[in-house]
Amino acid sequence: MLTAEENQLLCRVEGDAPMGQLMRRHWIPVCMAEEVAEPDGTPIRARLLGEDLVVFRDSDGRIGVLGEYCPHRGPSLVYGRNEEGGLRCVYHGWKFDTSGACVDMPNEPPESNFKHKVKITSYPCQERGGMIWTYMGQENPPPPIPDLEVLNLNDDQRFYAKRVQTCNWVQAMEGEIDQSHNSFLHTWLDLANDNSGRSRISEIRAKDTAPHFEVVETDYGVCVAARRHIDDDSYYIRITQFLMPYHTMTGPYGEDPVRTWRCWVPIDDENTLVHGANFHPLRPLTDR
Q1: CA nearest neighbour of 266 among 8, 24, 7
Q2: Closest alpha carbon to 55 in 129, 118, 131, 119
Q3: Model confidence at 85, in pLDDT bands (50, 70, 90)?
């Protein structure tokens, strides 16, 4: 069991918290690209590591990830007008481009150079694998985006979804790598009603509710194996990968299986944004 101090170190991400600072050194998925698909389209709000952000695509298709609040009087730029290469605050019309530079200040006289002295927080971003990624750390240039298999496929080979969990990122993520709860939370009270196509696995999980865990440390995280007894000579072993700092990949089921990737991104100390994708590395997904 972790001590209270160790738990705080692991779970807290806001401000100067060490874990949050570590995560800022990695590329973070902000949203799906389809959420900001249109140039000059409606901006969207995002919150990562306790920091409020706004995401938009400008007139030329460039993505901007900026601090949410205008530095003048503090209105949210999510209500701004996305037009002519920048995001314009609705209060006094200050406009910021994707780099965070103020490019127009219509409530200043033409001879004023004050706009050149104003800049809003901005973070590098890339569009990769149907998602918008941002880097909130200090390295310049940033490290490469992780070369995850799901990011290198055609759009018809993957299906994205996301959700918010009202708990810290560790509470959210650890359920993904804990195979013992499958015998209880993800099972059937009456196995005769199992229509999942995995009735044999359900039987094994019901028979052996206390799997034996083994963990191997890797260069990128840990590999977790959960072993259940089938009979005296055979076992069911399920493998889960944890990739630092917040990626997981769980083992697929059956022949020609669809794979699963998830990313457990801290919104703040108490909420988690879960990005996930089902994908097949060799063929398009079917409607089913």
Answers
A1: 24
A2: 131
A3: very high
- The string of pLDDT tens digits covering residues 165-190 is 999 999 999 989 998 888 888 887 88
CA 104 – CA 107 distance, rounded (Å): 9
204 strand-pairing partners: none
Cβ-contact 71, 90 below 8 angstroms: no
- Measured at the CA of 84, the angle between CA 78 and CA 89, to 5 degrees, comes to 30
* pTM, 2 dp: 0.91
Q: Residue 202 — φ and ψ, nearest 5°?
A: -60, -40
Mean of pLDDT values over 120-136 = 97
Sign of CA dihedral 5, 11, 17, 23: positive
- Per-residue pLDDT, 138: 94
Strands annotated E in the chain: 27-32, 44-48, 51-57, 63-67, 81-83, 86-88, 95-96, 102-104, 122-123, 125-128, 131-135, 158-165, 212-217, 221-231, 234-243, 247-250, 259-268, 271-279
Read off the DSSP letter of residue 282.
Answer: S
Label each residue of 154-203 as H, E or C: CHHHEEEEEEEECCCHHHHHHHHHCCHHHHCCCCCCCHHHCCCCCHHHHH
SS3 120: coil
